[in-house]
Amino acid sequence: MPMIVAAKAGRCTAAACGGRIRKGEMCWYETAKGTRHVEAACRDAAAGIRPNRRAAPCARCGRRVPAGEGNLKVREVRRRKTYTVTCAPVCAG
Ligand SMILES: [Zn+2]
Ligand SMILES: [Zn+2]
Question: What is the pTM of this model?
Answer without folding.
Answer: 0.79
